[in-house]
Amino acid sequence: MAKLSLEELRAIRNSGKTEMAKRETEGKTAQVIIGMGTCGISAGAKDTLDAFIKAVDEAGLGATTIVRQTGCMGICDKEPTVEVIADGVKTLYGNVTAAVAKQIVDEHLVGKKVVASAVINK
Amino acid sequence: MHYTLCDQIADIVQNAMDAGATEIQVELVENEKVAVVYVRDNGPGFEYKPFYTNGLKHPHRTTGLGLAFLAQTVEQTGGSWKIESSERGTTVTMEFNLAHIDTPPLGDVVLLFRSLFVTCTNEKSMLLTIHRTKKTARADTGYTVTSAQLVDVLGNLETAENLLLLERYLRSLENNG
Q: Which of B47, B57, B71, B163 is the most exposed place for a label (fewest CB within 10 A)?
């Protein structure tokens, strides 16, 4: 991969803007918040973060989904923990491996159905 | 001890973010034997006490392990560290001995830098500048990126689309310069 300049980065960014603007007008922004404290990272949260970013983008939701990192959520025995805020509803998931992350994107963010087997209560 | 040096660096930069700084500079200079990291901030400064935290981030908590992990890592692996702090800011210098067998691996600096840029811009509205230098026998190469440049080009860094673009951009710099 050649070294990108900021202007090349801007051009790549702008090339996807029409499609993105169309989706933004739908006003549906989801958030995926991943616990990235020391406990989360030691349980594999970096792989979880990476899996979410890629799965969200592959699902065509890359422009309207925020993937955010946060600190420890206080449930260290169920790391990696992930909070999903979609359609105004918060859902907390635990033991979210990369495979579960993909499942959450496909079933929850795309299919609008909570992945019950991974839900935890704080 | 953290799993990678990048995790350790993230831990120390997080201290600067939590200290109320508005500008942070992270400099990573690496050759085959040593990685030296400077974390400079313009926060209010502090007096270092081992295993102590001020309880502002986590109410009632007075035990902190970030700098203790750093001290443990460098003391066990032939590195060094120091803090210079005044009311005008703090600089933490970390020198990791890459040749020591017990030094954790450096880790993925691209993902470290991306994470720091995102946290600085979205949670804290701080200016972050990253200087990266790789020294070899033949030449010194490197790059400098600021959070202001990235926000100007990409906008909100936290969308999945922009996180991928940011990784692609930083990796192109890391692999070529």
A: B47
B135-152 pLDDT, tens digit each = 998 889 999 999 999 999
CA of A61 vs chain B CAs: smallest distance (Å)? 8
Contact of A90 with chain B, judged by CB distance below 8 Å, is answered with: no
The answer to whether residue A56 neighbours chain B at the CB level (below 8 Å) is: yes
Give the nearest partner residue to A69 out of B7, B115, B149, using CB atoms: B115
Spatial separation of the C-alpha atoms in residues B14 and B75, rounded to whole Å: 22
Whole-model pTM over 0.90? no
Candidates B163, B165, B167: best to mutate against A (most CBs of A within 10 A) is B163
Chain A residue nearest residue B1, CA to CA = A38
Q: What is the complex's ipTM, to 2 decimals? A: 0.86
Amino acid occupying residue B80? S
Please state whether beta strands A30-35 and A65-70 pair in parallel, antiparallel, or not at all (unpaired).
parallel
Average pLDDT over chain B, rounded to whole?
Answer: 90
Pairing of strands A89-93, A82-86: antiparallel
